[in-house]
Amino acid sequence: MGNVKHIATAAVGLIGIGAMVCAPSLIWMLPAALMAAAALAVLGWSAHNAQHTAEQTLDGVQQSVDALNEQLDRARTQLGDTNLKLQLVQRSKSNTEAILKSIRDAVLVADQQDRIIMANEAAQRLFGFRFDPTALPSLATLSDAAAFVPLMQKSRTGRIAHVRHEVTLPRDGQPAVFDAVLSYVQDDTANTGAVVAVLHDVTREKEIAQMKNDFVSHVSHELKTPLASINAYAEMLVDGEAQDEDTLKQFCTIIQSQAQRLTRLIDDILNISRIESGLIKVSKDQHSMALIVRDAVEMIKSYAQEKNITVTAPAAILYDQVVIDRDMLSQVVINLLSNAVKYTPAGGAIAIASELNEADNCITVTISDTGVGIPPDDVEHVFDKFYRVEANNKMAKGTGLGLNLVKQIVETVHGGRVFVTSTIGKGSTFGFELPLAAENVKC
Amino acid sequence: MTQRRALVVDDEFHIVQVVAIKLRNNGFEVTTAENGDIAYRLACELNPDIVITDYQMPVLSGIELIEKLRQNPATESTPVVMLTARNFSVEDDQKQTLRISACLSKPFSPREVLQTVEDVLNQNATV
Question: Which of A72, A134, B18, B29 is most buried, most CB within 10 Å of its CB?
């Protein structure tokens, strides 16, 4: 009876294991073993016969148990493999989710009923909703997506494999341009599908392309203006329209001055372009800022005298040494001074001041004029490339590059700062700040 | 034969000068103005045979000048040639409404300006 008890216990144990591993092929064998064991107990055969029969039965049971163990081992191995595969699939799913979550492009998937079945963080931010996989919101509930939803629906109804659209959607309250790639993914087994949308923000690229176009347009326009004069006056010379010596000289002078204007323009464009691309050769040495200002004033003096404008410069400041490219900084001061003369009516005044700020280890140079001033809306743009103050166009001709070059030289090349303040009808103050040469401050 | 009178209007000194010299050397009496406002007053005063004006000008633009000329009986039929910058164009209906005889795009050749002025005046004489 003890053996029977053991077998029954083993069989019950096996049923448990069989149930656990969900191996139906094993279970059908177990009732036979149980029935044999039960029969032994109930019938009470004679000892000899019973012993012989029991041994035969036990052998059979043993064989069945061995077979069960083999199948159990195989099932365990299969289960291990399945678990491994499951882990790999889960890991792959986690990786995919992590990638989708981290990419900056918005990714959104909608099913055949226009329900959103997946949306990464960027898509949720863009369309202003929290994705809940148990709720599956409709595409129609997306806010400010009127330009986008019909495209998704069109991809779905047309079952279009891949299509690209340029869509404008609000982002942080501003219109942003997206390159949207929509792909219809077909599920042949279920005769259904989903639309996957990937939206890449191309607003900045668009702006840069527009800036490039504007730049080329500005440059060609600015280059054509002096070229047009050169061409017209050269044609006049060819046609013999200069009928006396003075007119001939005048035509030649205009051609020369326009050619010089063209050269300056090309130089300015090239210098700005080289500074922006970091290709300009910079030769920095220690110089006195006061001496650079003094030399610039000398150069501009005759131009100022023509308009009866007085220019006052400060006395040299001790220890005003700066590490600069002398030619470039001279151009900064000359550009600011010539602008001041240009936009100051006859009889006005220009004052140059410089101040040391030892706490910040820098020097500030300001050029103030009694000129026409700059309208408030224009002030923040005066250092922009090709920007010209419309209201002051009549005062002087210009390319809109001079102040941009000043900014590039001071800020990009020398790590300084430019600034401007202005009052209409009273005048403007342009200035820049440069770090002082460290050694000299200590002297 | 009376000398033909032209009024040349542009805020760009070199343009005014080159057109004026070209026309003077070819028998025109030329008056110049640097903006539309001055040009309108001169047109009323001198009643020129033709006005050659820039499109973009301070104070009073070329279009505004022509509108004023067309409203004044003394200048309503004065032929006008317009000089336009490269990126500006005058719409056809605006050209018809304001009766702009011809448009020339900058940069232009002085020969081309002279030829256009001659053609416009000849057409007007025929009409």
Answer: B18
